[in-house]
Amino acid sequence: MNKDQVKGVTEQVKGKVNEAVGKVTDNPGKELKGDLQQGAGKVQKAYGDAKEDAKDNAKRNAP
Fold first, then answer.
1. Residue 20 falls in which region: left (phi positive, over 0), alpha (psi -120 to 50) or beta
2. What is the end-to-end Cα distance of the chain in Å, rounded?
3. Which domain of life is it from (predicted)?
């Protein structure tokens, strides 16, 4: 697991917390912030996943 994957998952968790707090406190701004954090986290994790896949493929195809 690389740093982008870890940061992406962390951002998703923070986003879920912010979204839940926004719902409980009836704060649409906080809820939206949580949604955006989750989206950003998913993108960062996907980037990290792609980097890992590329690294794994390079190792497999190395002479």
1. alpha
2. 24
3. Bacteria
What tokens were used for 9?
A: 């998952």
* Domain count within the chain: 1
pLDDT (tens digit, 9 = 90+) per residue, 3-50?
Answer: 999 999 999 999 999 999 999 999 999 999 999 999 999 999 999 999
Answer whether 40's CB lies under 8 Å from 16's CB.
Answer: no
40 located within any domain: yes
Domain region containing 11: 3-49
Answer whether residue 22 is part of any domain: yes
Is residue 54 in a domain? no
Question: Do 38 and 16 form a contact (C-beta atoms < 8 A)?
Answer: yes
